[in-house]
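Question (not urgent): is this output format expected?
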Amino acid sequence: MKAPVIILLILFSLISSCKKEDIESSLVGTWELRTLEGDMGTITYPPGNGNVIKFTKGEYQILKNGAVTKAGTYTIVADAGFEMSICLVKKKGEFENRIIYDGDNSSQKTFIHISGNKLFLASGCFASDGGVKKEYEKQ
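Got this back:
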């Protein structure tokens, strides 16, 4: 009786770790900001705008006009709290993970979703005019 439960637990942990590894490997690269959605509406950025995030395995750099404005480490963790934190309804399979910059678990949660060559980051609560959703395109 215990064997099937143990097998199910092992399979679940393998599936969860594969999804995390897929996200982390898909994240590696250079991403340029395309849209910024928040309380002031949506702003669209043209290619070559210089607002870039670079990810390597476990490290990031944020650049503005070619200059590094912030750099450090990151981790990806599973988190089912998107709707409660962001105050928006999500589609199944989207925003199931969040990114933690520099080991800071106490700051506002930033949820992550990758689809094709698009990276989406969402943080803050849209219902209280504090939400921000950014769309990046892989370079």
